[in-house]
Specification:
The chain is α/β, with parallel strands linked by helices. The protein has one domain: Ribonuclease Z/Hydroxyacylglutathione hydrolase-like (Metallo-beta-lactamase, Chain A), CATH 3.60.15.10. Helix content is about 20%, strand content about 25%. It is built from 6 helices and 14 strands. A 7-stranded mixed β-sheet has the order 6-5-4-3-2-1-14. A 7-stranded mixed β-sheet has the order 7-8-9-10-11-12-13. Strand 10, helix 3 and strand 11 (about 195-200) form a beta-alpha-beta unit. The longest helix has 14 residues, at about 245-260. It is globular, with a radius of gyration of 18 Å.
Length: about 270
């Protein structure tokens, strides 16, 4: 599978000259299966360029089919949805997935795009929309098996593990590490994954001075998790909008001293597994 990052910031978009190397869009990740199926994870502002890319590559006369998974519904993970081009194409078929019940998922997305917040209600967009819950057994999309793991985050969130063949990719943003020890359930969920994307919203120093209980983590806890779970590569994500490129470069260097295969995720980064 191919993994592409279109948004890696948390909380809100941040686009200034000091924040160009890693990008300013909020979270959206595209996974393309070996068979060519498109799976999107979260609908932050990064979903708009994903939509543009999908529409540009669409074959004339053929429907555009894709799947969109939500980790949770805080604004930075859904704010790009009303601007997602495929929603406005009658030839598009979009399957929406979350850990909520299908009717709840549909209601949440509809509420977000209702008056007075947006002029076009979600239900009125031309694309064919289907809604699904993700149960304990997970699901399969094309050649990729997908399972989820609950995370420690206000109002709930989940990590996703995508497996194709012998390769596994885990995305675990919006989670807070325990005060003591390790989140053993998440550790097992990440076990031997080729790539782990982990929440690095705060530095350890920032976390300790006023951010305990906010539902986010640090690069150091990401390193500890990667080491304990035996992952191949660690990508730090949900990057703080207040962190400049220079700050993120420093964070990546500090993390690599403890786990060599570490980097900060960035817009445009593509990984082939």
């Amino acid at each position: 599978m191919r993994i592409e990052f279109f948004g890696v910031r948390g909380t809100f978009p941040s686009a200034t000259k000091e924040r160009t190397s890693y990008g300013g869009h909020t979270l959206c990740t595209r996974v393309t299966t070996k068979g060519g199926a498109d799976i999107l994870i979260d609908a932050g502002t990064g979903i708009r360029p994903v939509g543009d890319k999908l529409l540009a590559a669409r074959r004339p006369g053929r429907p555009l089919r894709l799947s969109l998974l939500f980790t949770h519904f805080h604004l930075d993970h859904i704010v790009g949805l009303p601007f997602f081009g495929p929603l406005y194409e009658a030839a598009a078929e979009i399957d929406f997935y979350s850990w909520r019940e299908p009717d709840d998922l549909r209601e949440i997305l509809g509420r977000f795009t209702s008056s007075p917040f947006y002029p076009v209600h979600f239900e009125k967009t031309p694309a064919l929309k289907r809604f699904h819950g993700i149960g304990a057994d997970g699901l399969t999309i094309d050649t990729v098996r997908i399972t989820s793991c609950p995370l420690h985050h206000p109002q709930g969130s989940v990590a996703y593990r995508l497996i194709e063949g012998s390769e596994a990719f885990v995305l675990a943003t919006d989670t807070e590490h325990p005060a003591q020890g390790m989140d053993e359930r998440l550790e097992e969920f990440c076990r031997k994954s080729r790539v782990l994307v982990y929440d690095a919203m705060f530095t350890p120093e920032e976390y300790a001075t006023g951010h305990v209980g906010w539902g986010h983590s640090t690069w150091r806890e990401g390193v500890r998790l990667a080491q304990a779970a035996g992952v191949g590569r660690l990508l730090l994500s949900h990057l703080n909008p207040d962190h400049s490129d220079r700050t993120l470069d420093k964070i990546a260097r500090r993390a690599r001293r403890e786990f060599r295969a570490t980097a900060c995720a960035s817009e445009g980064l593509t990984i082939e597994l």
